[in-house]
Amino acid sequence: MLERRLYFHIDWALLLAILALCGLGVAMIYSTTGDPTRDVSRLHITQLYAIVLGLIAMVVTLSLDYRTFTDKSHLIYVGVLALLLYVMFFGAVQMGARRWIALGGFNLQPSEFAKIGVALVLAKFFGENRGTPAWSDLAIGGALTLVPLALIAKEPDLGTAVTLLPVFAAVAFLAGMRMRVLGVFVVCMLLAAPVAWKFGLRDYQRSRISTFLDPSQDAKGAGYQQIQARITVGSGGLAGKGFRHGTQGQLRFLPVAHNDFIFSVLAEEQGFAGVLVALGLYLFVILRALEAARLAKDRLGSYLVLGVLASFTFQVVYNITMSAGLAPVKGLTLPLMSYGGSSMIATLAGFGLILNVRMRRFTN
Amino acid sequence: MALAEDRRTVAIRLSVLQYLIALVFSVLAVSFWVLQVAQHETYAELAENNNQRTLALRAPRGVVFDRNGGVLVENRHSYSISILREHTKDLNRTVQLLASLLGFEERGVREIVDRHRREPAYRPIMIVQDATLQQVAAVTARRLELPDVVIEQVPTRQYHDTMAAHLFGYVGEVNDAQIASADGLKSGDVVGQSGIEKVYNNLLMGEDGAKIVVVNSVGREIRTLDEDPASEGQRLRLTIDEDVQKALEDGFKWSGFNGAAVILDPRNGEVLAFASVPAYDPNAFASGIDKTTWAALNTDELRPLQDRAIQGRYSPGSTFKMAVATAALEEGIITPDFKVFCPGSATFFGRPFQCWKKGGHGTIDLRHAIEQSCNVYFYTLGNMVGIDRIHKWATLLGLGEKSGIDLPNEVQGLVPSPEWKKARTGEKWYAGETISVSIGQGQVSVTPVSMAVYISTIANGGTRVTPHFLKAVDDGSGWKDVPTPAPQSKVDFKPDTIKALHDGLYLVVNGVGTGGGSRIVGRDVSGKTGTAQVISTEGAKSARGKTDKDLRDNGWFLFFAPRDNPQIAGVVFMEHGGHGGTWAAPISKHVLETFFAKQDGKPLPPPPVKQGTPPAPAGGDDPPLVLPGRVADNSSVAGQPRP
């Protein structure tokens, strides 16, 4: 359990940065959902509850040695798969997708927890295989990633599904995968792209990508959000329009501003200055976590940290790029800031593991 | 050592990731810098256009009052529904949905949109000008699906139920030609399209204001940023007297006939009452007239859109006789005591011309010839005066001329002359034609308004006043009188002429004449009836397919009162109303009674009741004229003398 000694080794700076981002998120949620023409929204309160639950989850993932988790990773992995299967058949349908399990007043989104499950199982798998991973190792690791990925993609939630890929790539990379192999992967991806375009994507997904390449071809349709995102960010200027004074987010030119486009709102209301602060915090969190991977007592710990960090980083970078209208619009949230309970809890639980690895660097 | 090597690989690769992350974040920071700092201006402008919408605040048109301050035309609030394409995602869908919500055919809505397609997207395209509450409710309920549809409260013209529709005219959306010809008009403006609304459009039209509002992405107004209120148009006070107007309209309703009437103040040309029947409902235009109503108005055989008072040309019949008398007296050809023997008919140029009274009037002087409308007397007089002088004096009295009234599209009547005939047909004038003209038949045609000027000129002794409606204007700083327009011409008639004419016209009403239906004790009403055959002016060909009623004679009554100091003069014309004494004179009486009662501050007379019962004619009988030439072309009358 948590010894007194370990308590001192908690990375308080990382935790503080995480909490700062959470706070920023709550403020932005409050700003965008407080529409003067509507009733007062309580979404920011809900988000605060989610943060508290997330911190509890973090304490749980901190308390036990991370090796306990990796030892049980196969069970966790199977549990996640079971939840994903359950969602597939019995999940609550919202906005045309079956992603949630309704738990009373709370909707659980298992795909968010799948990221941790995959990170744990891959860390364990590659941690046990010393030396450069062989082709067979990569195939097994790939399969372990692709099964939940396929289940999530089927929901459909392609955005979240894709975040599993960086987990595999990062862990495999760190495990010493040859650069040549990496090259083969890249070539395969490029070759597969047209096929995936033709068979793997749905119409709305194709149109999102094609309008990304030329948003003006459909300025009021699929390109609308992208153009609006750019206008939102661009009109923020250096200092921003002020808290709750953004016009784009406040007036709902941006859809789900408190969710996918929360960074756009930040950019609009707090300007480039606010953007720099948020970017700085995220960069600090990521580099600090990488530091944890470097300091880790064993390879298992490094892999675990990187596995958790990979999906987080991917999502942060993609969402921020999308917020500026510089990437196709995808339903990917911004971890720590976007509104969403499952995402918050899963992310904080993940950081619990990262803190776990760092603070147990001296233990045996 | 493998383990150490592993650790080194991990360390190197972690460093690679570190630099990669730092690079990615730097790129992100630069991207945001480009968007937020370098290109800020562009996006700030876009954001502003995104959420700001300029709404026009329609200015109410000026209120129109009668001479005593009674409201004739005002404004009411109505709702217009427009499409604002600026915020349209799918115009087809909007058109479809809107049409179904409004209960319109999609094609119709699409046509309106197509007509305005070229205009800037920020200018709303009005689909309904005066939406019903159901339509407003239906559209409001689907607001979220129609962010590009705006509902605005607009002032709409409200006319009281009136036969003066032609006087007020109507308003409508400005057309392209009007935009091109006038400054300051823009598409979508509502302007006067006829009547007073058109003539005084510049005064009546206010200045639209604007309101800049913040809207959200579904077009809902969040707050107002700036407001420039609309300024109402100038208020007009007309010369019309509400009560006299109503009396006139009541008279027409009572008779059930179509026709026209113009009642003037003979001293200055102020129009006290004005009617053209049948009228249309100007309110239908105010709220954006629909195609079927418009088509019905245009194809109606009775032509309700025609302003009969200024656009109808009719044969004046016996009422023309005063023009001949004026010419003879003013030219010094006769004195009022000049007598003619009427045996019931007379022969001119080898052709017999009949008087309406079979046995003849015997020996008769001018006053009594007017009183009894003796044809033979005026045949004789016309023959002595000659067509040139008849033309000259008829013109000075206002016949065959435009009155100059402040209404659009007035037409000119015709008093024939040798020059006119030469130019028109290339033939010379036959003296026989003069005989027909002398009693107002043949080619003579007049508009009711010119007849009102004619009787006013006789009443006031030679001043051809300009009929007009505008008395005063209030631009917000108080009423300012509008100067009376100058007379069209002015001749001082000899006192003898005035006396003789007035005496004769007095006798028509108060003697044994045909105008007894308008007699009012103590008011010295003077007037003249006229009965004109429809067939001789409109031509035999138009007679086909018409019923007897359509072919009945048109009736005139011209009047002024009191005889010695006329304060009111006018004309009542009844289309197919038979003899002028039957309907036109009693209607005039009701108008006069109302006028004098109001002047004396007495209770106004009740409107005549029992529609369709002609009053018993008082005074002498004047059956329809039986003329030798009951044919359309006057020249054939002269050319083919009949037995």
Task: Describe, in short, the structure shown.
The complex is a heterodimer of chains A (364) and B (643). Chain A is built from 15 helices and three strands.
Description:
The complex is a heterodimer of chains A (364) and B (643). Chain A has 364 residues and is mainly alpha-helical. Chain A has helices at residues 4-9, 12-33, 43-63, 66-71, 73-90, 110-128, 135-153, 158-162, 164-174, 179-200, 203-213, 222-236, 262-295, 299-323, 341-359, and strands at 92-94, 97-103, 106-108. A three-stranded antiparallel β-sheet of chain A has the order 1-2-3, covered by helices on one side. In chain A, α2 packs antiparallel against α3, α5 (73-90) packs parallel to α7 and α6 (110-128) packs parallel to α9 (164-174). Chain B starts with a helix and ends with a helix. Chain B has two domains: 58-207 and 215-238, Penicillin-binding protein 2a (Domain 2); 252-284 and 307-472 and 481-639, DD-peptidase/beta-lactamase superfamily (Beta-lactamase, 3-Layer(aba) Sandwich), CATH 3.40.710.10. Helix content of chain B is 38%, strand content 20%. The longest helix of chain B is centred in the N-terminal third of the chain and has 37 residues, at 2-38. At the A-B interface, α9, α12, α13 and α14 of A face α1 and α2 of B.
Descriptive keywords:
heterodimer, A: 364 residues, mainly alpha, three-stranded antiparallel β-sheet, 15 helices, 3 strands, globular, B: 643 residues, alpha+beta, Penicillin-binding protein 2a (Domain 2), Beta-lactamase, 2 domains, seven-stranded mixed β-sheet, five-stranded antiparallel β-sheet, 25 helices, 23 strands, disordered C terminus
